[in-house]
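During data preparation, a discrete fold description was generated, and the record follows.
___
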Amino acid sequence: MQIVLNKSFFKRTPILKGKFIIITVAGLLLLSLLVALIQLALPLNYSQQIVILNYHRVSDKLTNPWDAAETVTPQQFRNHLLFLKQHGFHVLALDDALKILQNRQKAILPNSIVITFDDGDRTYAENALPILKEFQYPSTEFIIGEFSLSSKGDYLSWPEISELAKDPLITFHSHTFNSHSTLEAQGKTYFETDPIYILGKSRMESDSEYTQRILNDSKQEQALFMKYLGRSDTVIALPYGHAARSFISLAQSSGYTYFLTQDRSQANRYNVDLTHIYRIDVGNGITDAKRLSLLMKGLTSSGPLHTFSWLRVKYNQVRFNLSPQF
């Protein structure tokens, strides 16, 4: 009888193990979902982290549906700031935030946040700044040097930048002089912060050509900052949040210390890699105050909430990219 029981037990063991594994995995998934739902229901609250928000244009005049990918309306932007105020966020100037992140002796206030804009678009001054001044929130605009030398009028001119910079709530930093583009060649997309394919010569850019181009770009940007703002610059937002390590190394030799990306996988903590400072792009037509809260919870949380919230965010982003007018 004992032998029969043992044989039966051994025959059933793989099945029991399989059921046990399935039940365990299902239980862990349900527990994770429950934890995530509880966290989502709780007020947004984080500490020892700084979230950096990123916008481009603030306007209610969209010439085509795709503008919504990089534009918030003035009312939408006001709702974002109202959300920050109502929930007790501490809005920091970018320069102050960068100093704090390098020094553990400086306390990070709960729910610390920074507001930034890219490109130097004129709507920053016309539409964003009046709203920011209502809330007395500091902000930073990253300037594409050559664009602001243009007479087209879509971007702030350097004299205008110089005048705006007198306001202690407004800071300007670099977004390259003229390396904010991509090139299509040989079926590939080349970022201008990387070595590029030279169409006129039907070949890739040499190391020396690349080095000279990037150093010259940084030199021209730094010259504009010195001429109009009376200082060189140490902070640069990477175009498209992307750059080769060689670009970062060359930019460092030109005086840049802080490199802001478009990596929205987490918030910034003490001793963050200065060549990879995280920002989250919230300047688009689908980010209302509710989605802003969800995005920030995903950034500042760990575990199941981070996973579940980002699955939802990715789904919404795919929908937005396919049909930006919705």
Observations:
- The radius of gyration is 24 Å.
- Residues 2-41 form the longest helix (40 residues).
- The mean pLDDT is 86.
- Residues 46 and 193 are 34 Å apart (CA to CA).
